[in-house]
Protein backbone atom coordinates (compact mmCIF):
# COMPACT_ATOMS: atom_id res chain seq x y z
CA UNK A 1 0.00 0.00 0.00
CA UNK A 2 1.25 3.47 -0.90
CA UNK A 3 -0.48 6.38 0.84
CA UNK A 4 0.28 10.00 -0.04
CA UNK A 5 -0.40 12.69 2.55
CA UNK A 6 -1.48 15.59 0.43
CA UNK A 7 -2.75 19.17 0.35
CA UNK A 8 -4.24 20.22 -3.03
CA UNK A 9 -2.12 22.89 -4.70
CA UNK A 10 0.91 22.19 -2.49
CA UNK A 11 4.27 20.49 -3.00
CA UNK A 12 2.61 17.10 -2.57
CA UNK A 13 1.34 17.59 -6.16
CA UNK A 14 4.89 16.70 -7.22
CA UNK A 15 4.57 13.23 -5.74
CA UNK A 16 0.98 12.77 -6.88
CA UNK A 17 2.00 13.55 -10.47
CA UNK A 18 5.01 11.20 -10.25
CA UNK A 19 2.84 8.35 -8.88
CA UNK A 20 0.54 8.86 -11.85
CA UNK A 21 3.47 8.93 -14.32
CA UNK A 22 4.68 5.66 -12.81
CA UNK A 23 1.24 4.06 -12.81
CA UNK A 24 1.61 3.02 -9.17
CA UNK A 25 -1.58 2.38 -7.18
CA UNK A 26 -1.94 4.72 -4.20
CA UNK A 27 -4.36 6.15 -1.66
CA UNK A 28 -4.64 9.85 -0.97
CA UNK A 29 -5.08 11.29 2.51
CA UNK A 30 -5.94 14.96 2.16
CA UNK A 31 -5.02 17.52 4.84
CA UNK A 32 -5.56 21.25 5.32
CA UNK A 33 -2.79 23.83 5.61
CA UNK A 34 -4.84 26.04 7.89
CA UNK A 35 -6.80 23.91 10.41
CA UNK A 36 -3.80 22.96 12.57
CA UNK A 37 -4.05 19.24 11.79
CA UNK A 38 -0.54 19.09 10.28
CA UNK A 39 0.77 19.90 13.77
CA UNK A 40 -1.01 16.92 15.37
CA UNK A 41 0.95 14.00 16.76
CA UNK A 42 -0.23 11.51 14.13
CA UNK A 43 1.07 13.63 11.29
CA UNK A 44 4.26 14.77 13.07
CA UNK A 45 5.21 11.12 13.51
CA UNK A 46 5.44 10.95 9.71
CA UNK A 47 6.73 14.45 8.95
CA UNK A 48 8.47 16.04 11.92
CA UNK A 49 8.12 19.66 10.75
CA UNK A 50 4.43 19.13 9.97
CA UNK A 51 4.82 19.57 6.21
CA UNK A 52 3.35 17.80 3.20
CA UNK A 53 4.14 15.66 1.34
CA UNK A 54 4.69 12.54 3.41
CA UNK A 55 4.54 9.16 1.72
CA UNK A 56 3.78 5.84 3.42
CA UNK A 57 5.50 3.13 1.43
CA UNK A 58 7.36 -0.14 1.99
CA UNK A 59 6.46 -0.27 5.69
CA UNK A 60 7.70 3.21 6.58
CA UNK A 61 7.00 6.86 5.87
CA UNK A 62 9.20 9.38 4.05
CA UNK A 63 9.07 13.19 4.23
CA UNK A 64 10.64 15.83 1.93
CA UNK A 65 9.40 15.84 -1.66
CA UNK A 66 12.94 15.59 -3.10
CA UNK A 67 13.73 12.54 -0.97
CA UNK A 68 10.43 10.91 -1.97
CA UNK A 69 11.08 11.57 -5.66
CA UNK A 70 14.60 10.12 -5.44
CA UNK A 71 13.31 7.10 -3.47
CA UNK A 72 10.54 6.36 -5.97
CA UNK A 73 12.79 6.67 -9.03
CA UNK A 74 15.41 4.38 -7.49
CA UNK A 75 12.75 1.89 -6.33
CA UNK A 76 11.11 1.76 -9.76
CA UNK A 77 14.32 2.18 -11.81
CA UNK A 78 12.81 4.77 -14.12
CA UNK A 79 12.15 8.45 -14.78
CA UNK A 80 15.65 9.37 -13.59
CA UNK A 81 19.19 8.67 -14.75
CA UNK A 82 20.57 5.80 -12.67
CA UNK A 83 22.96 6.63 -9.81
CA UNK A 84 26.46 6.75 -11.28
CA UNK A 85 25.33 7.58 -14.82
CA UNK A 86 26.75 10.72 -16.51
CA UNK A 87 23.60 12.85 -16.26
CA UNK A 88 22.72 11.86 -12.68
CA UNK A 89 24.20 15.13 -11.38
CA UNK A 90 21.98 17.13 -13.77
CA UNK A 91 18.95 15.29 -12.42
CA UNK A 92 19.91 15.99 -8.81
CA UNK A 93 20.61 19.65 -9.55
CA UNK A 94 17.12 20.23 -10.96
CA UNK A 95 15.37 18.19 -8.26
CA UNK A 96 16.98 20.40 -5.63
CA UNK A 97 16.71 23.63 -7.65
CA UNK A 98 12.94 23.13 -7.45
CA UNK A 99 13.19 23.73 -3.71
CA UNK A 100 15.35 26.85 -4.17
CA UNK A 101 12.55 28.30 -6.26
CA UNK A 102 9.73 26.89 -4.10
CA UNK A 103 11.12 28.42 -0.92
CA UNK A 104 10.90 31.89 -2.46
CA UNK A 105 7.37 31.15 -3.68
CA UNK A 106 6.44 30.04 -0.17
CA UNK A 107 7.64 33.36 1.27
CA UNK A 108 5.57 35.25 -1.31
CA UNK A 109 2.54 33.04 -0.62
CA UNK A 110 2.78 33.89 3.07
CA UNK A 111 2.88 37.61 2.34
CA UNK A 112 0.29 37.74 -0.43
CA UNK A 113 -2.19 35.13 0.82
CA UNK A 114 -1.82 34.01 4.42
CA UNK A 115 -0.49 36.90 6.51
CA UNK A 116 -3.32 39.08 7.83
CA UNK A 117 -4.00 41.90 8.47
CA UNK A 118 -2.31 43.15 5.30
CA UNK A 119 -0.52 45.83 7.36
CA UNK A 120 1.54 43.01 8.90
CA UNK A 121 3.21 42.37 5.53
CA UNK A 122 6.69 43.68 4.79
CA UNK A 123 6.62 45.37 1.39
CA UNK A 124 10.46 45.56 1.17
CA UNK A 125 10.64 41.80 1.79
CA UNK A 126 7.93 41.16 -0.80
CA UNK A 127 9.93 43.21 -3.33
CA UNK A 128 13.15 41.43 -2.46
CA UNK A 129 11.56 37.98 -2.77
CA UNK A 130 9.97 38.92 -6.10
CA UNK A 131 13.44 39.87 -7.39
CA UNK A 132 14.89 36.63 -6.03
CA UNK A 133 12.11 34.67 -7.74
CA UNK A 134 12.82 36.50 -11.01
CA UNK A 135 16.53 35.61 -10.76
CA UNK A 136 15.77 31.91 -10.21
CA UNK A 137 13.14 31.90 -12.95
CA UNK A 138 15.48 33.60 -15.46
CA UNK A 139 17.97 30.79 -14.82
CA UNK A 140 15.25 28.29 -15.63
CA UNK A 141 14.19 30.21 -18.73
CA UNK A 142 17.78 30.19 -20.05
CA UNK A 143 18.05 26.45 -19.43
CA UNK A 144 14.73 25.62 -21.10
CA UNK A 145 15.27 27.71 -24.26
CA UNK A 146 15.30 25.18 -27.11
CA UNK A 147 14.60 22.21 -24.81
CA UNK A 148 11.46 20.12 -24.24
CA UNK A 149 12.30 18.97 -20.71
CA UNK A 150 14.85 19.67 -17.99
CA UNK A 151 16.97 16.67 -19.02
CA UNK A 152 17.14 15.18 -22.52
CA UNK A 153 13.94 13.30 -21.79
CA UNK A 154 11.04 13.64 -19.37
CA UNK A 155 12.08 12.76 -15.82
CA UNK A 156 10.93 13.05 -12.23
CA UNK A 157 12.82 16.36 -12.07
CA UNK A 158 10.06 17.78 -14.28
CA UNK A 159 7.48 16.59 -11.71
CA UNK A 160 9.45 18.37 -8.98
CA UNK A 161 9.50 21.61 -10.90
CA UNK A 162 6.01 21.40 -12.36
CA UNK A 163 4.35 22.37 -9.11
CA UNK A 164 6.32 25.65 -8.97
CA UNK A 165 5.36 27.06 -12.32
CA UNK A 166 1.72 27.95 -11.80
CA UNK A 167 2.73 29.71 -8.58
CA UNK A 168 5.63 31.51 -10.28
CA UNK A 169 3.26 33.02 -12.83
CA UNK A 170 1.07 34.40 -10.02
CA UNK A 171 3.98 36.70 -9.09
CA UNK A 172 5.93 37.16 -12.37
CA UNK A 173 4.47 37.95 -15.79
CA UNK A 174 4.21 34.81 -17.93
CA UNK A 175 5.02 36.80 -21.11
CA UNK A 176 8.54 37.45 -19.79
CA UNK A 177 9.29 33.69 -19.71
CA UNK A 178 8.15 32.19 -23.04
CA UNK A 179 10.26 29.01 -22.83
CA UNK A 180 8.97 28.29 -19.33
CA UNK A 181 5.37 29.03 -20.37
CA UNK A 182 5.67 26.58 -23.30
CA UNK A 183 7.27 23.98 -21.02
CA UNK A 184 4.40 24.39 -18.54
CA UNK A 185 1.81 23.91 -21.28
CA UNK A 186 3.53 20.68 -22.40
CA UNK A 187 3.66 19.42 -18.82
CA UNK A 188 0.00 20.19 -18.20
CA UNK A 189 -1.01 18.37 -21.39
CA UNK A 190 0.48 15.09 -20.14
CA UNK A 191 -2.23 12.52 -19.33
CA UNK A 192 -0.59 11.69 -15.98
CA UNK A 193 -0.58 15.37 -15.00
CA UNK A 194 -4.27 15.59 -15.84
CA UNK A 195 -5.02 12.43 -13.83
CA UNK A 196 -3.13 13.92 -10.86
CA UNK A 197 -5.14 17.13 -11.17
CA UNK A 198 -8.37 15.15 -11.30
CA UNK A 199 -7.39 13.05 -8.27
CA UNK A 200 -6.11 15.83 -6.03
CA UNK A 201 -5.74 19.12 -7.83
CA UNK A 202 -6.57 22.50 -6.41
CA UNK A 203 -5.08 25.91 -5.91
CA UNK A 204 -4.09 28.10 -3.01
CA UNK A 205 -4.67 31.15 -5.20
CA UNK A 206 -7.84 33.17 -5.63
CA UNK A 207 -6.30 35.72 -8.05
CA UNK A 208 -4.63 35.18 -11.42
CA UNK A 209 -1.88 37.64 -10.56
CA UNK A 210 -0.67 39.28 -7.36
CA UNK A 211 0.71 42.79 -7.85
CA UNK A 212 3.31 44.10 -5.46
CA UNK A 213 1.74 46.59 -3.07
CA UNK A 214 2.93 50.20 -3.16
CA UNK A 215 5.45 51.23 -0.57
N1 LIG B 1 11.18 20.96 1.61
C1 LIG B 1 9.87 20.40 1.90
C2 LIG B 1 8.90 21.54 2.10
C3 LIG B 1 7.51 21.03 2.45
C4 LIG B 1 6.55 22.19 2.72
O1 LIG B 1 6.93 23.25 3.20
N2 LIG B 1 5.26 21.96 2.40
C5 LIG B 1 4.26 22.97 2.67
C6 LIG B 1 3.16 22.91 1.61
S1 LIG B 1 3.77 23.36 0.00
C7 LIG B 1 3.63 22.71 4.00
O2 LIG B 1 3.35 21.58 4.34
N3 LIG B 1 3.38 23.75 4.79
C8 LIG B 1 2.72 23.63 6.03
C9 LIG B 1 3.24 24.61 7.04
O3 LIG B 1 4.22 25.32 6.75
O4 LIG B 1 2.65 24.66 8.10
C10 LIG B 1 9.45 19.48 0.76
O5 LIG B 1 9.88 19.73 -0.38
O6 LIG B 1 8.74 18.51 1.02
Automatic annotation (TrEMBL):
**Taxonomic placement:** Bacteria, Pseudomonadati, Pseudomonadota, Alphaproteobacteria, Rhodobacterales
Keyword field contains Transferase: yes
Q: Name one GO molecular function term.
A: transferase activity
Q: Which InterPro entries match?
A: Glutathione-S-Trfase_C_sf, Glutathione_S-Trfase, Glutathione_S-Trfase_N, Thioredoxin-like_sf
Q: Boundaries of each GST N-terminal domain copy?
A: 1-80
- Keywords recorded for this protein, A-Z: Transferase
Q: Which Pfam families match?
A: GST_N
Q: Which Gene3D superfamilies match?
A: 1.20.1050.10, Glutaredoxin
- Give the protein name, as stated in the record: Glutathione S-transferase
Record SUPFAM superfamilies: GST C-terminal domain-like, Thioredoxin-like
Q: Which PROSITE patterns match?
A: GST_NTER
